[in-house]
TrEMBL record:
<feature type="domain" description="N-acetyltransferase">
    <location>
        <begin position="12"/>
        <end position="174"/>
    </location>
</feature>
<dbReference type="GO" id="GO:0016747">
    <property type="term" value="F:acyltransferase activity, transferring groups other than amino-acyl groups"/>
</dbReference>
<dbReference type="InterPro" id="IPR000182">
    <property type="entry name" value="GNAT_dom"/>
</dbReference>
<dbReference type="InterPro" id="IPR016181">
    <property type="entry name" value="Acyl_CoA_acyltransferase"/>
</dbReference>
<protein>
    <recommendedName>
        <fullName>N-acetyltransferase domain-containing protein</fullName>
    </recommendedName>
</protein>
Length: 223
């Protein structure tokens, strides 16, 4: 897939990434997370993680400008037990799942909707029968905003990756008929956890007086 992006003089080339791209992938990952790694916001990955994905544990898509990798997205099929969301979501142990397991965009090319485009590209790559999920830190507003915009819903809020809170966001084709609504700031973990335990879902990003909120909905009018 080729595409032009506003503000760029060249044409972007999208293609599946291969083992020969590993050096470029890892260099972009390290540059994207920066010198001050903040695992409470973004989980740093090892070179071996990407090598495993390219060796068959998943698939990757890359975006190139003038033959330089400027963005990538990971779709992971083989998941470690600690990353399996099915027990927390009431799903059958054999329900087919895949994870949108991270994406990076080089600093000069951020703000051009590439993160959201990478989400859409990985949704298109995944088998239709699979339930898709992603994890996102409440403090990582661009991440969960783009996931919500592409049809993912907040279904759980749990400690991951060393105890850091993450939204578990799911795209399974189901929708809640909203009969009750609540706007909640991402920093309010207590309220969100209570709503999610009662079956509410976070479905939309909203801005209230310039502050990001998540719209939670319930199918029960008396919730």
């Amino acid at each position: 897939m080729n595409a032009a992006v506003a503000g760029l003089s060249g044409e972007l080339v999208w293609r599946a990434l291969e083992a020969g791209d590993l050096d470029a992938i890892y260099a972009l990952h390290r540059a994207a997370i920066g010198e001050a790694v903040r695992p409470e916001i973004v989980k740093p990955e090892s070179r071996d993680f990407f090598a495993g994905i390219l060796a068959g544990r998943g698939r990757m898509i890359g975006v190139f400008l003038d033959d330089v990798l400027i963005a990538y997205g990971v779709l992971q099929h083989a998941l470690p037990d600690y990353d399996d969301p099915r027990p927390h979501l009431g799903l059958a142990a054999d329900a087919p799942i895949a994870k949108l397991a991270g994406a990076s965009v080089a600093q000069p090319y951020r703000g051009r909707s590439l993160q959201r485009a990478l989400i859409a590209a990985r949704v298109a790559m995944a088998p239709e029968s699979h339930i898709l999920f992603a994890t996102s830190a409440p403090a990582n507003t661009p991440s969960w905003t783009n996931l919500l915009a592409e049809g993912f819903a907040v279904r759980a809020l749990r400690p991951y990756y060393g105890g850091h809170l993450r939204y578990v966001m799911v795209r399974d084709g189901t929708r809640v008929v909203s009969r009750a609504e609540r706007l909640v700031v991402p920093a309010d973990a207590g309220t969100q956890s209570a709503l999610l335990a009662a079956g509410w879902r976070g479905v939309e990003a909203r801005s209230v007086k310039g502050e990001p909120h998540i719209l939670y909905v319930s199918e029960h009018a008396d919730a």
